[in-house]
Amino acid sequence: MHQNPPDLRPDLARARVPETRREGQPTIGMVSLGCPKALVDSERILTRLRAEGYAISADYQGADAVIVNTCGFLDSAKAESLDAIGEALRENGRVIVTGCLGAEPDYITGAHPKVLAVTGPHQYEQVLDAVHGAVPPRPDPFIDLLPASGVSLTPRHYSYLKISEGCNHKCKFCIIPDMRGRLVSRPAHAVVREAEKLVAAGVKELLVISQDTSAYGLDLRHAEERGHRAHITDLARDLGSLGAWVRLHYVYPYPHVRDLIPLMADGLVLPYLDIPFQHAHPEVLRRMARPAAAAKTLDEIAAWRAICPEITLRSTFIVGYPGETEAEFQTLLDWLDEAQLDRVGAFQYENVKGARANLLPDHVPDEVKQDRFERFMQKAQAISEAKLAAKVGTRLEVIVDEVDESGATCRTKADAPEIDGNLFIDQGFDGLKPGDIVTVKVDEAGEYDLWGRTD
C-alpha cells in the first residue's frame, strides 16, 4: 500500500522488451532515477539503442555496459545517484552516466573515477556516442528493427508524454533551468502524433509532463502547424479526442488554466490538476521568486470547482524555506484548511548547490523543519481521510495496474501512478488484467487509499 508522500521517483526502472537476444548481440542495461521527465529520456535512449541493434538487459550481469540516468535536483537526490552509480560499478563495472547530475561531471568523477563517460541531461547523441565507444554496435539488418511503439519503462497501459523541456522561471530554490535550459516546446503535431501511436499500441492513459505545462508553446508563439496549435488548451483538447485518459501534471496556476476546466467537465481530459503551489504566504512566495501569487489561488480553486465539482487537485509544498516564520507557516496551514486539496505532499527545504536560496538569511533549523513537516502532513492526512471517506458507497471508474493472487491494484481518475493512492479490489477480481477500465463500488476508505468491488 502506498503511503503519502510516497517516493516520487520511478527508480531502478527496467525496460519491458523481449528478453531473447541473438548470439553476440551487444547488450545494455539501464537504471533510471529521478522524475518522469527523466524516465522519458531513458525510454528515448533505449529506443535509439534498440534501433541500432542493441539488446536491453533487465539486470547488471546480463549487460555489456550500464547507463545510469541520474537526478541532481536536491543534495539527497545527488547522494542517491552516486550510490546508484557505485552499485552499477560494483555489479557490472562498465558504467556510463547521464541525466541532470551529469551537468556536474567533476562531482561524479571525483566520487567514481572509473565511470566510462559522463553526459548531461537530454544529451541523446552524446550518450549514444559513449555507448558506441564502450560497446560497439553489431546490428543485423534482417533482425534488428525499431519497435513500433519504442521501448517503455512503464506498464503497457500508461505512458508519460513529454511536451516540452526546460523552464523560463527563476525560482530561487531550483536549478532546473541551469541544468535543462530554457523552455523548448515540442511542435503540437509531433506530440499528437506520438500520442496517437501510443494509443494505437494499447496505452489507456497519457500522463502529460514538462517542467511547466502551462507555458507550453510560449516559445513557439503558440504557432499552428499541420492543424495543431502549440497551446496547452488546444493540445489538451486534441489529446482528449484520442479516447485515452489524459492526465495533466506540473500545471502552474496561470489565468488561462481556467480554460482547461471545461474540458475536464466535458470528460475530454481527466478532472485532475497537479499544481506546484509550494507555499501560501505572499512573503515566502516572494522570497522563492515564484511566478504566481497565492492571494488569488483560493478564488481560482473555487472557480474551478464551480465549473467541475469532481476535480482533483494535487500539489506539493516546501516547509522550512529560509526565513519562514511560525506565523508564515501558520498561514500555510490555514490556507490548506481552506483550500482542501485532495492530494498533498511536502518537502523539507534543502540547500542545492548553485541555487540562489542558499544565500538567503535566516535558515530554519532542521528540528523546526521536521516539526513543521509533521504538522503539515498531519493536516493533509486528515483532509485526505475525510475526502476519501465521503466516497464510500459511490461508484467510480478505475484503471487496473496490477493483478496477483490476492487482488487487483487499481487507480481512480483522482490518482496518478506512483505519487497518489490506490483502490484495491480483493474480491471478484477474476478476469481482470492490467489496463482494464472498470466501474467499482467503494466499500472502504483509509487515509490515502480505497477498497471496493466490481459491479
UniProtKB/TrEMBL annotation:
Keywords: 4Fe-4S, Cytoplasm, Iron, Iron-sulfur, Metal-binding, Ribonucleoprotein, Ribosomal protein, S-adenosyl-L-methionine, Transferase. Binds 2 [4Fe-4S] clusters. One cluster is coordinated with 3 cysteines and an exchangeable S-adenosyl-L-methionine. Residues 1-27 are annotated as: Disordered. Residues 153-386 form the Radical SAM core domain. The keyword Nucleus does not apply. Its cofactor is [4Fe-4S] cluster. [4Fe-4S] cluster 1 binds at C35, C71, C100. Its EC number is 2.8.4.4. GO terms for molecular function: 4 iron, 4 sulfur cluster binding; aspartic acid methylthiotransferase activity; metal ion binding; protein methylthiotransferase activity. Catalyzes the methylthiolation of an aspartic acid residue of ribosomal protein uS12. Belongs to the methylthiotransferase family. RimO subfamily. This is Ribosomal protein uS12 methylthiotransferase RimO.
